[in-house]
Amino acid sequence: MAEVNHSTVSEFVLLRLCDSWELQIFFFIFILTLYLIIVLGNIFIVILVITDLHLHSPMYFLLSNLSFIDLWLSSVTTPKMITDLLKENKTISFGGCMCQIVFVHFAGGSEMMLLVALAYDRYVAICKPLHYTTIMSQRRCIWLVTISWTTGFVHSMSQLVMILELPFCGPRVVNSFFCDIPLVIELACTDTYSLGILMNSESGVLGMTCFILLLISYTYILLTVCHCSKDGASEALATCTAHIAVVVLFFGPCIFIYVWPLNITSVDKFLAVFYSVITPLLNPAIYTFRNKEMKFSLRRFKNQYVNSRWNL
Predict the structure, then answer these.
(1) How many angstroms separate the CA atoms of 60 and 288, rounded?
(2) CA–CA separation, 185 vs 198, rounded Å?
(3) Which helix (H) or strand (E) holds 147?
(4) Is the alpha carbon torsion for 229, 235, 241, 244 positive or negative?
(5) Smallest Cα–Cα separation from 66: which of 119, 137, 102?
(6) For residues 288 and 45, is the Cβ–Cβ distance under 8 A?
(7) Superfamily of domain 11-306 in the CATH hierarchy
(8) Interhelix angle for 94-127 vs 138-164, to 10°?
(9) Cβ atoms of residues 199 and 32 within 8 Å
(10) Taking the domains of the chain in order of start, what are their residue ranges?
(11) pLDDT per residue over 73-118, tens digit each?
């Protein structure tokens, strides 16, 4: 890649989260613990959805894909951040930096569209329950997932094509713990103001479009249920409130990074850590393990596998 854009920079230097060695040890233990929970939790969700026939429905098919993307999103940057916390010199190769940019935007763009697909699934289930099995057919679900992955791929490739044209010949200190477009293009040996606006606008348009669609979808769902029954309204309100919380926490950092940048180093680092470590925890914590059917599935899994092996 270094030869493609005639760069003389072969690696970038990443900055630490803090200057205190004691705090770095604390962050190492804390983030490592969260990452292990993310990996185990999301892998367990995928396995549970595949093995439990009661979960072979459109919603859980989409949720298992969301778990896979969350696992991927966290694994792109978090393992290196964890290991770098114990290093004095934190560097990443030029190719590794470009790979981080591609996979972060691939997973991020795919997850945005998948969250829209989940909102559409809830809309059909609540507002058109008699036509749910017809509308949310297996073919439709596969198409929704395919569109999500395709959107993420196109988005990431468009970003990569633009950034590979830049010459990197001098500064190489990335003011974060991983490579992201707004920080990397600042290091190019040319004026990148217009390009930065273009690339941030593309990410911002994708993020804001999905965010607005999600808010409209859940608002319409709540209004529809409130007109139908009070009992259903309370249950739907609890479900939609949890989903809206996930949406706000997922899209919030994206909006502040790409749509309304704060340009405050400490805030940017906090948002980056939040997006990489906290956000992938939301799927197992809110979308899945708070779900009644998933709780029943966990009990069946425990009775079928854990208790049976214990009796042996």
Answers:
(1) 9
(2) 12
(3) helix 138-164
(4) negative
(5) 119
(6) yes
(7) Rhodopsin 7-helix transmembrane proteins (1.20.1070.10)
(8) 150
(9) no
(10) 11-306
(11) 889 988 988 888 888 788 888 888 999 999 989 998 999 999 999 8
